[in-house]
Amino acid sequence: FAFFFFLLFKLPEARIQNFIIGHLRILSQDQGFLFSAEKVRVGVLLGPTIKIYNIELKAIDDEKQTLKIDFLKVRPQLLSMLTGAKRVAISAELLGGEISGDLGLRNAGFIVDLDLSTLNLGAATLLRKFLPLEMSAQLDGKIQINFDAENSQKADGVVRLGILKFNSAPQSLAGFNLPKIGISESKIDIVIADGKLAIRTFQIGKD
């Protein structure tokens, strides 16, 4: 992991940009997406950092389904390898808001620690590939999960989400006709401890 980034940052910047964009295109196509980006910048002053500007993901089977990411910064946390983990710090500007935090892999598990701020879900038409529902909403919250696939009883974390101004027009979903739906505010608070999930709050609409 560290050796890979050392070799990568020894390359000229133009070759680094072509390598990163080319590699991400291949990974995206394997998952059913088309990937494009305007430019890539690298830095080493405060540790290796990759910045990618104006990313666009499109579904291969429907190019109207898109996700645009204005800016993405990825910084490998090389010291995390001392604990047996491979972690990266990320910061992304998208959907009129921001996602920031850490992502990582550890043995047979994964680590997620993300803060979500004012994300306009209606602008992410790529979501319809997974949830074919035309809607708009603003999402804020925190997702923090530490999962060990070899021992799921060690899993812990929290998922706290706030959803504002959820609106969907009358439409058909999975054979059902849905009416117009409007919900001013919703809250979800889930805690994971010792491999068990507990829902502390599930509130639809204001009291």
Q: What would you say this structure looks like, in words?
A:
- With 207 residues, the chain is mainly beta.
- It has two helices and 13 strands, in the order H-H-E-E-E-E-E-E-E-E-E-E-E-E-E.
- Strand 12 and strand 13 form a beta hairpin.
- It starts with a helix and ends with a strand.
Short description:
With 207 residues, this protein is mainly β. It contains two helices and 13 strands, in the order H-H-E-E-E-E-E-E-E-E-E-E-E-E-E.
Layout of helices and strands, plus pairs?
Elements: H1 2-9, H2 13-30, E1 33-36, E2 39-43, E3 49-59, E4 62-77, E5 85-94, E6 97-106, E7 109-120, E8 135-148, E9 156-168, E10 171-173, E11 176-178, E12 181-193, E13 196-204
Antiparallel strand pairs: 1-3, 2-3, 3-4, 4-5, 5-6, 6-7, 7-8, 8-9, 9-12, 10-11, 12-13
